[in-house]
Amino acid sequence: MGIAKQGTRMIVVDGDSYRWVVAPNDEPGLAIVVVHGEADGQRMVTWVEHGVVIAPGLVSAAIREALLHHGWTPRQRGKQLTLRCVDPDAANFRVIAWPSR
């Protein structure tokens, strides 16, 4: 499940390239939508509160959390992984599955 290339940004995390974009939405906040830069695989969406500054450091932290703790497989097709950022602070960055399982 890809995303349109226009308007996306590239980021390299641990040697892999990813495309990402911020999609505004009023209900749960802002969505960081990320896909692998070379493979058409599983999409990851991380919701953050309005007012949170979404910078490359936050995006890379979300990617690492999704890969290490939430089973994200960006190189393989699959159902979208949806997460919620509960602490955007770089020192304590944490995401949870959303909606809660």
Notes on the structure:
This protein is 14% helix and 39% strand. It is mainly beta and 101 residues long. It has a 6-stranded mixed beta sheet.
In short:
This protein is mainly beta and about 100 residues long. The chain is about 15% helix and about 40% strand.
Percent of residues in helices comes to 10-25%
Average per-residue pLDDT, rounded, comes to: 87
Distance between the termini: 22 Å
How many distinct beta strands? 6
Number of helices: 1
Helix and strand string, N-terminal first?
Answer: EEEEHEE
Descriptive key words:
101 residues; 6-stranded mixed β-sheet; single chain; 1 helix; mainly beta; 6 strands
Write the layout of secondary structure elements.
Layout: E1 9-13, E2 16-25, E3 29-36, E4 44-48, H1 56-69, E5 81-87, E6 94-97
Parallel strand pairs: 4-5
Antiparallel strand pairs: 1-2, 2-3, 3-4, 5-6
